[in-house]
Amino acid sequence: MVQTSDVSVRLDERIRLMSTLLAGTDWPDRALARKPHGLHAHARAARKYLQPYRQHSALRVLQALIDRGAPAEALFALATRFTWPGLEDRALPSWVPPGWPDALRDLVRTAALDSWLQSQDAAWQTSINAARRALEGVTFKPFLAPFLGAIPEDLIFVPNIGQPSDQEVAVRAGRSLVSITPPRIAWGDNPPWPFDDDPAYVIRAALACYIRLALTPFLNTHAERVAAASKTALPVSEDYARAYPTWQAQFANLFVSGLVALYLEEHVSEREANAFVLMETKVYGVALLPATVRVLRRYRDEAATGRYQSFAAFLPLFPKQLRVVRRIVSL
């Protein structure tokens, strides 16, 4: 019997609104400058629709936040603090300029954004159905339990055919861990791939989001173990250390990539796992990934025999074992 997925695919109107608002800023230009790629037809339509409203105060404030370096995670987390459809603000963070919620509501009315989004609903529903097919039968929580313990939050996947078009966004919203993920970029100016054309992409993007979101409170809870582990430097390259200057950032990225690779190997295919490892190694400089996967697999297998009570107990040993396994792998 095929297991029911523990990931719910759904549309959140507040997330859809933020993905549309970003199209009224220079966010798409920045994404295209990082990596030229074709946009989904809906993303192109949103840019065209919002062009006459670029000087509206709601979009000018949003642009100012982007200019000051507000990450996509913060902007989408902000969107989930509003009610729908009234867009009443609930305990907004201090970095949100006063008056922006009123300006946002005015923009939605002035531009008739709710009606325009409904006119685009067919494209979103197509993506939702495709994402459901890609995630059919997928279960992440049992796989993650030996590493992060029980995850009580709901796992939500929101396919995003707006902005950002080149990155998935991980957001904690109430009792939910949310992966906001665009379709995979195609080659050149071609439109992006439908979600169900590459299920492995959907799986690895969603899983990476959930691991990152669950890892942060895990590390905070076990701060003493993290401090003990960080006394041993991770054997990363100089380039990697410059990209991720703290021990915790280095560990988090290795841990996320290592678990994704391990899941792909065991639950999708060895070919997809190898492709992911190759991409992470060549594009992102994660040369330690094969060694990381071995260390994580060995921990899980030994924890199953009772050698370790939890990954927190193993954490101080992680950098030491990684150094040993890296030497073995490089032979």
Question: Would you kindly provide a written description of the structure presented here, covering whatever features stand out?
Answer:
By secondary structure, the protein is α/β, with parallel strands linked by helices. It has helices spanning 13-21, 27-34, 41-50, 57-67, 72-79, 100-110, 113-119, 121-134, 141-148, 199-221, 223-229, 238-243, 247-267, 270-284, 289-304, 311-314, 318-330, and strands at 7-9, 154-159, 169-173, 176-181. It has a four-stranded mixed sheet with strand order 1-2-4-3. A hairpin with a 2-residue loop joins strand 3 and strand 4. Helix 15 packs across helix 17 (318-330). It starts with 6 loop residues before the first strand and ends with a helix.
Task: List SSEs in N-to-C order.
Answer: EHHHHHHHHHEEEHHHHHHHH
Mean pLDDT, nearest integer? 94
Task: Give the strand order of the largest sheet, numbering strands 1, 2, ... along the chain.
Answer: 1-2-4-3
- Beta fraction: 5-15%
Shape: globular
Distance between the termini: 43 Å
**Could you give the count of β-strands?**
4
Low-confidence stretches: none
Q: From the alpha-carbon coordinates, what is the Rg to the nearest angstrom?
A: 21 Å
Question: Helicity range of the residues?
Answer: 55-70%
Structural class: alpha/beta
Q: Compute the number of helices.
A: 17
Largest sheet: 4 strands, mixed
